[in-house]
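User: Modeling request: complex.
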Amino acid sequence: MLTPEDSLPFLLGLAVLLPLVSFFVIFLFGKWLEQLGAHIATGAIAAAAMCSLTAAAIWMAQHAPPATHHAHPAESHAVISQSSVHLTALHDGEHDHDHADGLVHGEHDEHADDAHFVPPVYTGHWYSLGRFYGSEVAINYYIDALTIVMFCVVTFIATCIHFYAGGYMHEELHEVTDHEVTLADGTHLKRPGRYHRFFQYLSLFCFSMLGLVIAGNIAMTFVFWELVGACSYFLIGFYVERQSASTAANKAFIVNRVGDFGMLIGLMAIWASLATFNFGDVDRNGDGKLDPHEHGLFSLLRPAGENGLHELRVPDGMVLQGAKERVEEMIVAAQPGTTTADLESQILAQVSLWRDGKAKGDATHYGYWLLVIAGVGIFCGCVGKSAQFPLHVWLPDAMEGPTPVSALVHSATMVAAGVFLVARFYPVFAPEVLLVIACAGCITLLIGGSIAIVATDIKRVLAYSTVSQLGYMMLALGVGGWAAGVMHLVTHAFFKSLLFMCSGSVIHAVHTNEMTEMGGLRKKMPYTAYTMLVGCLAIAGVGVPSALGIPFGFSGYYSKDLMLEQAYLFRSANPLWGSIFFYAATGGAAVTAFYMFRMWYLTFAGEPRDEHRYKHAHESPRVMYVPLVVLAVMAVAIAWPIFGNYGLTNVIEQGRPIGLWSDMASLDGGYVWLHESKSHADEIRTPVGLMAFGAAMTGIFLASAMYLWRVLDPTDARRTFAPVYKFLVHKWWFDEAYDVLFVRPAKVIAACCVWIDKQCIDRLLHGLAWSVRQIARCGEAWVDQGAIDGAINWFAAKTYSTGAALRGMQTGSLRQYVMFIVVGALAMFVLMSFWSYGFAR
Amino acid sequence: MDLVTCSMSALIFFPLAAAALISLIPGDQKNVIRFTTLLATLVMFGVVLFGMALPTNETISFDIETAGMQNVVSLPWIPSFNIDYFLGFDGISFPLVVLTALISALAMGASWTIEKHVKGYCVLYLILLTGMMGVFVSLDFFLFYIFWEVMLLPMYFLIGVWGGPRKEYAAIKFFLYTLFGSVLMLVAILMIYFNSDLRQLSPQQLVDSNVRLAGVEHLGAVDEHLAAATKYHETISAAETPVHTFNLLALQQLGQHSEVFDKELLFGKSLQWWAFVLLFIGFAIKVPSVPFHTWLPDAHVEAPTPISMILAGVLLKMGGYGIIRICYPICPDAGYDLAWVVCSIGVISMIYGAFAALAQTDFKRMVAYSSVSHMGYVVLGLGVWSATVVGDPVAWNMGVKGAMFQMIGHGISSAGMFFMVGVIYDRVHHRNLNEFGGLFGKMPVYTSMAIIVFFAGLGLPGLCGFIGEAFVVLSVWKFSAGLAVAGAFVVILTAGYILWAVQRVYLGAEYKGPHAEALTEINIREMAIAVPLCVLAILFGVLPHTVFRYMDATIDQQVQDLATWTKETKIPRIQAEQTEKEATAAVAPGWEQQAAEAAAVRVDAVPAVAVVDGEI
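Assistant: Request completed. Predicted assembly structure:
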């Protein structure tokens, strides 16, 4: 219990299981628990949060994060100008901070400047789902700094939201009249409250989400991936009576399944070639040594190598699977009589040639594309879950769920799971996959941002904003900014859940989602208004750029700048794509600032647009606004680099997976991913910081001009850009296009299948049955009735007629009979005479 | 008789005895008859679960460590044809035996709503149980066939008498389809029988396959058994005519270690190729695989709820069981060559069934098509023959285990789904998906259980449908990437049709169909059936080990045997064929060269003529 190897899995496992226990308790006894159900759920998640924080403390006590490395301009210049691989550990230099104590410093010296730094990881086995000879699919764990960070974030936010939901859902405690559902008789639906059900689903969700985070292998990730999807389904469809809610729930699940289809392909490719799903090495037999099948994906794909840099290398299994046809050729071409062992060694001897494309007359890099398929496949799952283009369509509809759900599931945690998985699986992604990720992220951030500009439903604005921010994270990860992407994941979780909860508070007060019916609410609900303003400032990334002295700002400022810096760095190596990515991201920053402040002004500033609603508006109860304040504090300060070596950035940096400490290039060398530490150089920080600052300010200024000062008229703008406006209001026509392209064809194919069954197969069978009956009937008519029966009947008839003819002779006259006897006797005599005569001769 | 013989025979004959007993009860004592039948099925299940599945009894309990046959009973039945009363189970059949016992007890509970001819129903029901158990435990091919047919007849009457409006049509369709398959199977059985030859087996193989050593006495100890087998081997080796056998284990040995089934039969294909095709069609009808599936929707729609449960829960599994027990081990060469066909049929069934389910408006028909789709996974998993020279056949092992798990998982989830449909059909007497809605509000307990069961069918992790589906799909890539992608695609369709049905039936504001007043919450009897199914769906999903522990040893062994066969027999064969082909090809260039030379001569000659022409 005292060593981290034992205590961390125990604590985090407990954190995973507590919500599950709460789920079962409420599931079975919910009806009798009523409000107690919420307390159980909240208690469970709060306890889980305690466990997580304790685990974090143990972690940091054991593994002090690497010290931040204050950059001297000359040094950073050296970093960026060196084409050779140069590794520095975290290097944010955003403030002057005192070097940590000697111990941590020692760690720093030991790890942070070491190119061969291997992040501390605990892996282990819980139980087995299935064993296949040496290989196994199991429930196990993988605990590193990323796991710890995610646990703390998820449990902390979930706890806040549980408290908040306790207030938000209070209507469900008694009978509810659902004004959005009109029955056939014209009345509104009345139904019993489902307070405990809500917390039941919420608990199940927390369990699934934490299970996803602690997952030690990609199959287990998939298991919990689907489970969070199912929880999301239940929570979106919480108001089951509403057609729109159940449709949105279905849409979310099915669209996610499309992503999971891709993920399954990735899983299959991995399993077929490597026969393991584990991230890290797990010593299953506990002999202290690693057998070949105990290696995890990371060590298979990133062996230490000659230079110890853990560069990506296609593993043998993948080469063999990629070169399957070559292998089959070799097997077939082998001389009969070759022993299996010989053949096997011949094939294995080819592997390294195949891998490097050096086989005779064959320059294909076998296995590499399989690796790309695996990576893209896994990323497809992330596309679905994290609502990336082209599967982003479900997230806005998911706002049908109650607002705490939107805050927890659809902004802070579940949708960020895709980003988390990309970060977790980063060592497996080939550079080509990273390019795909960056592209998807870039497109998504533009789509999401553009639609958010015109949305009038307060939750939809936030939903599209979430889509856009997730696109940012993907873009950052795709251009090589591992820490930047994860950092934004964390900061975004705080400020976006804050924003959603504020919007929930507003909706709670005015009973509408439409911002056109709000306005001026800051006077009525100050806590909500100003915490939301904090959220807006955080998401816009407001802060003092480093060029203006001490860099300092809201949490979004740190993460957004990190992402932009990385995009800028990528641009320095890959001008075309890098420029697209960088300017899209910078423009996106302006757009983000614009729509967030538009939302804030429309809701809280100006004069009320709907007097009736304004009159009934009120600040939410304390149980709701206290979590808002707590989250607002976090949204401001979570990324502040004032905690020495124990700041967020340091801990995240400690989770950087192996092999990410060097530059990467695509197979053809056309694209280069420079190492992230180079993006902290002043040559990059200064211009990027200014541009980001400019973008945010432009957005805020424009929003203020249009919605606060009213110097620009939004309706004018709408009229001027009518086609664009229409395009955006209809959400780029994605739903309509998907309906035409996928939903309807699927229904047509389904109808075809039924038609084939009924009209082809069954027709054929009926035809066969009919023809057999006809044959039988013919057989009956001709053979039975005609030939056999006919013959017998004919014979009978003849017998009868003969008898009838002979009947005339039966006269009863004795004389006649005597004459017959005489004639007969004579005739016999004559005959016999001839007979015997003939024989005698 | 010893305990093993008693217990194994009881599996088969106890239901028959119960049926005989019930036939003595007056027909108007409906409840007595029902309770007696239920008691009989419960006793069966109790014996199987506590006596055999749990390690309570050293003699008859299933030993999970043993890969081979257990509880073997081998008595002469028709000695002149070497037909034996040969029973036993291993890790492949035993889980199915347990499943059969479980589902038949639950389905009997669901039979309470049957009011017509209760006595006849119960008698036929028990005879059906005899047939099902017999199929899973008989190891003599002839005996297997007998039970296969025995099961058919009660099913015909159960659908044809107690069914819905088109019951006669459905019953006769079911009967003829299956009979057609049986006839093909019979042909294959005879082909295999008359080509089998026990003389080809070594004494050890005779011992392994529990061949009854006619005419040789032995006392049962291991070395004595071997000695007796040696003696028997000598006796039959002296015989001039082949010694035929119906012993499935011996036939497996013959298929894998001799060449008796390799002789050419028709169109250049070997005997075992044809036997495989005939057997596979027979089993594919039972599974059912597209295009032999159209009996299933009709049979399900017309059959009463408990019979649908039995049909989907147990009968379909016989097809899969036949493929893994008979097709592959006896005809490995054909299995290797036809793996692609088998897998394609599996994938086509998965996709086709899912699409067809999407278009249904009848709730039960939709569930029936989902069975077609789900059983496609079984065929696919059994077919992924990806063993090669390098490495263990991990993917293949996973496919077979996934398929076996899918059979059990589907047995739970499909029986559950049909039961859930039956519950509302009993109340409102219609099944039109578009005329439901709002059941969540009226029957919350029922709805939550139904959603568990339907999500198990959907393949949600943590429920029993997931493990089978996921393992099968994951195993396919090694065999063929294209089929794997097509198979994985089905997860989208499955989510589509199940969620759409759930939305139309359970969610929504109000019920749209007739008899709204009849929608009362699920009662205690129905709970007693639904709760075990839900619990098992969760248990098997969370701890698949509860099922796998019974299968692991046997499947590992069987896959390993076939993989060894691939390495040691099949690959050399392919290499030899290739060498032969190259040899002919090596001759061919000679001819080609000659032809080319001849052509060159002609080319040389033509200009000469032209020149001559020119001169003229």
